[in-house]
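[job 0417] fold request received: Glycosyltransferase family 92 protein
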Amino acid sequence: MQGNRGGRFITKVVSLGIVWALVIYTALQFRSIKLDVPMPHLNSRYLLQKRLDTLTRHDSTTETIDLEPSVDKSPSLTEDNLIQDIQNRVPNLPIAYWNKNKNKPMGLNNTCARFPSIFDIEFNNNYWQTLHTSNGTFHLYGAYLDKRKNNKLGPTVRILGMIDRIEPTIVTHCQFWFDGKKDPVITKSFEYKYIWYKKWGNYKQGIFQPYLTACVIPQAYKNKVPQSISLVEKPCDNSTNNLRVIFSEPAAKKDFAVCVKGLDFLHEDLSVRLVEWIELLNLLGADKIFLYQLQVHPNISKILNHYEKQGKVEVTPITLAGVLPNAPALQHYFLSKKTNHKRQNELIPYNDCFYKHMYEYKYIALLDIDEVIMPLEGTTWKELMDKILPKAMKIKNEERASYNVRNVYFLDDLLHDHGWFKEIPRYMHMMQHVYRTKNFTKPGQYVKCFHNTEKVLTLHNHFPLSCLGNGCTSYPIETTDAQLQHYRADCVKTLKKTCEEFRKTSVMDTTIWKFKEPLVSRVSSTLKSLGFFSYAITNDSNSIR
Ligand SMILES: *[C@@H]1O[C@H](CO)[C@@H](O)[C@H](O)[C@H]1NC(C)=O
Ligand SMILES: *[C@@H]1O[C@H](CO)[C@@H](O)[C@H](O)[C@H]1NC(C)=O
Ligand SMILES: *[C@@H]1O[C@H](CO)[C@@H](O)[C@H](O)[C@H]1NC(C)=O
Ligand SMILES: *[C@@H]1O[C@H](CO)[C@@H](O)[C@H](O)[C@H]1NC(C)=O
Ligand SMILES: *[C@@H]1O[C@H](CO)[C@@H](O)[C@H](O)[C@H]1NC(C)=O
Ligand SMILES: *[C@@H]1O[C@H](CO)[C@@H](O)[C@H](O)[C@H]1NC(C)=O
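[job 0417] inference complete; emitting structure tokens
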């Protein structure tokens, strides 16, 4: 009974389906024939209207038929171009070296320390490579050759990454890969340098912590530059990571670069402030600003693309390692609630930036986009250093690991009691906000530094955490020479109480106005060319994006 009923039901459905298909088919046949005569069984008024519609819309319809949408017609990439594109996007991958050697058997022998192919690597969140050991997981971000003369270990490859252990005890080995050598040079890793203080919190097993691992190059190879490095537990292990060893040493160092931690401004459109900040730093003598990017507002991207084309900034996308969130809005929410995770993760871009550029610049400053190191006399950082270096040398005749600048707040609401300055565009936040708290924050608190690239080993936001040679010496730049102008709506949370006191006494400080002419003109013309004034007709090709 059951089966029979089911069978009849299916027959019904199938025949209905066939009838429906016939109806559709017939309708389609009709559609493909131009209907010039009104069909008697259709409402002729309706049909007439239809035809008129077609007539009136006729022009635009045929136009789109003939139009060709503008799509990217670049020729498809050759394999070499593709490899280059990968290299640019994943700078820590030794893809060129691998590509050159991929068909050669490389390793100690058939069963020991095989050269990891790009396809053997265990990636994590795009830019990290993983090592699982019997006691802890490593997510590795970058490897850099440190052959600075203050490095008493001698040429060393330093590997930056995160380990889910505090005080790791696991013994690991470094496999160095050299050009033209089929087997790796293997040594025990020398140390895991913790880039954090335990008193700052998050000091727990299982949470990924920032470390700089040292792999000292054996004596016999110390004059060679390794192409890549793998970190393994046992010497013979086939590695699941292979990092390009970053090393580029120009003939001479330039003076100043700035590093900025991962930008996390998905919803906050700081584009206009960013223009003022980049232009001001450029005027002060920052050769280049290296910014890392988590998530930013499209308008911020517009600004960054513009300055990247001009060679004034370089943007590196970055992610959080391990199981931390990387989905756009969620990541921001996470970072805003989990301050210690945020702070620990910031140390990766800071130290990566330092190690990538330590041979290119004498000084590297870590700044946020609301901070400016402002010399009180003169207009450049170079003049400032020329002035304070002799002062520092007089106290002690040696270069310091860092030169720190005292922090002072330029709070948003200090301005509004005083109104706007007419001759300065209102959108120029720093130029308008020339009232600051009278007192600086305490010496050594919330400072920012010029870091000496010959001396720093690991960096934190405010100070070096460890240094080469004789310790982390720092020269406090006097407030009569320079100040760290910090533009905020409010003081940092930890200073809430002092802040109330601070607010009661504000002073006018127009030091920034010495840049008025070039700054106003550069900022306004940049904004104009990028289409920020929709009423202004733009001339700049950059505005077409
Ligand atoms: C490969 O090298 C390792 C380490 O030197 C050695 O222990 C092992 O016996 C070698 N295996 C072969 C097959 O030669
Ligand atoms: C490394 O890989 C080779 C080839 O796949 C394999 O024979 C060897 O056992 C592996 N060595 C180790 C230590 O796992
Ligand atoms: C694993 O490493 C931790 C340190 O990070 C150490 O305290 C612990 O004793 C180690 N466990 C084993 C089994 O070695
Ligand atoms: C500001 O500095 C003066 C002089 O050093 C000091 O007496 C005063 O207590 C400070 N005010 C605050 C709020 O720290
Ligand atoms: C900035 O973003 C807003 C909101 O998405 C948009 O309307 C505006 O056109 C953008 N400005 C520029 C210059 O692209
Ligand atoms: C475009 O640029 C040219 C040359 O810089 C200038 O003479 C002209 O006035 C500009 N046009 C507009 C509409 O801004």
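[job 0417] notes: Confidence is low (pLDDT under 50) at residues 32-40. The first helix runs from residue 2 to 32.
[job 0417] exit 0
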